[in-house]
Write a structure and sequence with these properties.
mainly alpha, Fic-like fold, three-stranded antiparallel beta sheet, 56% helix
Length: 409
Amino acid sequence: MSNGRSTGPDSPQWPALESEQHPWVSRYNTDDLTRAQRDRLRQPYTSAIVPQIAGLSIDIPADIATDIDEATQLLTRFDAEVGPGGLPFASILLRTESASSSEIENLTSGARAIAEAELGERDTGNAAQIVRNVRTMEAALDLADKIDRQSIIAMQAALLGSFEPNLTGGWRDEQVWIGGNSLSPHLADFVPPHQDRVPAAMSDLVTFLRRTDIPVLVQVAIAHAQFETIHPFPDGNGRTGRAIVQAMLRHGRVTTNIAVPVSAGLLHDVEGYYGALTAYRRGELRPIISAFARAAGYAVANGRQLARDIRTIETDWEDKLRGLRSDAAAHRVRVMAVAHPALNSDIVVRELNISPPTAFRALDALVERGVLKAANSQRRNRIWLAEPVLNALDDFAARAGRRKAAQPR
């Protein structure tokens, strides 16, 4: 699968973007614009042309190959160590990955708000969008066995389908751009390919995804940069692109149990991540590959601390529940509260298949013993919070490096 051109992360031979011009047809009434704005809109705009990468050879220098090998081993070892521990921690990691990916897009929310949104307590705002991103990550992992056109479209539909269904179902049919203003792409920081070029570009990328001759993390980095450069959807490209990262790690057997929070690692140096995407578009591979290798290290370090925090909480809860019958529903709700740190009686009844009176007795017992705290509900339903778990999730987000502002890509 090679066109005979050998390319390495230090080599200028990885093809940089080319460009082309198109006439711009404004959606606005130009009579309401200034003369300078009208003059600009009359000019053609420039969009990118992405290279075909499916058959390019990739030679990886020894130093970066070592970094990639070490990062891959970190991810695989972390997955093997914490993944088999059961569903609750897998659910926590999925939520943290989704929240970190959303935060890269400046969609920030606290752990309590996210947990309440999962209960249906909040259906608008950032928390609700982050919960939709959890669905995207779940779809990515479910579809990891076959990453193709339809599965990628399905991932984006999981993100936006219930919110903006008109933006789902296929590739975009209009020009999009990043930065600048909403009038036109003339002042944009980056203008992805014209919509007519998207199907062929995505077909080439899907072919690249099928290759088995590239280290998985290198393939992930290149595919992610190519996807974000193509920007194939009218919205949700960043979050969908990072969901594809999880699908590729699962497909390549780097992970088998959990979603390692790689986005939290990218968030640790989000400006470096954006800079690496820009460098990729100039024909430089090293920055984006290095960004993913570093992100893996940050993700595993942060994830390990979260795992330690959760184990400490679980040990404390077990001590607080000593003396309860081993078959008491409270023990089952206690386990459930790790994955669902905001609870109501409906979810307890549904998930544990117990009666409402049994659920209420279990919840009351956990409150009495200091495991849960009763809280007010926005929907006139009683809710219960596992505050130590919520605090651990907020601590994870703080370590990942929440920042005040950055330009989404």
